[in-house]
Specification:
Helix content: 40-55%
Shape: globular
Distance between the termini: 57 Å
CATH superfamily: NAD(P)-binding Rossmann-like Domain
Bound molecules: 2-hydroxyethylsulfonic acid
Radius of gyration: 18 Å
Structural class: alpha/beta
Largest sheet: 7 strands, parallel
Organism: Thermopolyspora flexuosa
GO molecular function, one term: oxidoreductase activity, acting on the CH-OH group of donors, NAD or NADP as acceptor
Oligomer: single chain
Number of strands: 9
Keywords: Oxidoreductase
Family: Belongs to the short-chain dehydrogenases/reductases (SDR) family.
Pfam families: adh_short
Length: 255
């Protein structure tokens, strides 16, 4: 029987890379996100799931909508792995200039979205006999930085959710894994944070030799979920070699 993995935020970046990677590992991947056109392209590229084999099933999902999450849960015959990847940052303003709407949105997507999807799929994860919940947090889940208040608060919250779940599920056949990446260069993370300002987004990675890629993080996620059932990777922190700590980033200057 092919195992089913649900990946949220699967339309781009780490989510799409994880969906691709888990199909390569033999999973039926339910690739869930708001942008259906992108999911359909991913499915066309990787292959639609059929006849209980590996492949992609695209599902339109808004993790901020209970109705949407309920529809996802109702569509699943089984669920062995859940990757709570949907999330993101909005803005880099100091607290003195913070917009409560941005903070609310970040909490809604990163924390409440992960909680809603986890809660809805938990019965199936338990029923699988070897469920794995991956919480894609960030190094921002345990370190703060100037301008990052809303995002770091949300990621601290999501990290707390992972730890709480691990305590509450002790004794159930479900592992809870937190994967916390540092600097990852994806097509959209910084672009969304800077509201479409491509130059500011690009400057985040300027001069940094080899920031992590979405594939690097997908590789780490795949490793965590494919450990034997009794091995729980509590938290995996992954950074590029050029980032020794949140504020310690090596940059090569030219000219
Ligand atoms: C992204 C890492 O450093 O931008 O989660 O907060 S950081």
């Amino acid at each position: 029987m092919t195992k089913t993995a649900v990946v949220t935020g699967a339309s781009s970046g780490i989510g799409a890379a994880t969906a691709r990677r888990l199909v390569a590992e033999g999973y039926h991947v339910v690739a869930a996100a708001r942008r259906r056109d992108r999911l359909d392209r991913l499915a066309a590229e990787v292959g639609l799931a059929k006849d209980d084999g590996p492949g992609i099933t695209p599902v339109t999902l808004d993790v901020t909508s209970q109705e949407s999450v309920d529809a996802l849960a109702a569509s699943l015959a089984r669920c062995d792995v859940l990757v709570n990847n949907a999330g993101g940052a909005i803005g880099l303003e100091p607290v003195a200039e913070a917009d409560p709407a941005d903070w609310q949105r970040m909490y809604e997507v990163n924390v409440l979205g992960s909680m809603r999807v986890t809660k809805a799929l938990l019965p199936r994860l338990i029923a699988s006999g070897d469920g794995v919940i991956v919480m894609l947090t960030s190094t921002a889940g345990f370190v703060v930085y100037e301008g990052g208040g809303g995002y770091t608060a949300a990621k601290h919250g999501q990290s707390a959710l992972a730890e709480t779940l691990r305590l509450e599920l002790c004794g159930e056949p479900v592992r809870v894994v937190e994967v916390a990446p540092g600097m990852v260069k994806t097509e959209e993370f910084s672009l969304v944070r800077f509201r479409g300002d491509a130059e500011r987004a690009e400057n985040v990675y300027k001069g940094v030799p080899d920031p992590l890629t979405a594939d690097d993080v997908a590789d780490a996620i795949a490793w965590c979920v494919t450990r034997p059932a009794h091995v729980n990777i509590d938290r995996l922190v992954i950074r590029p070699r050029a980032q020794a700590a949140q504020h310690k980033v090596h940059r090569v200057t030219t000219g």
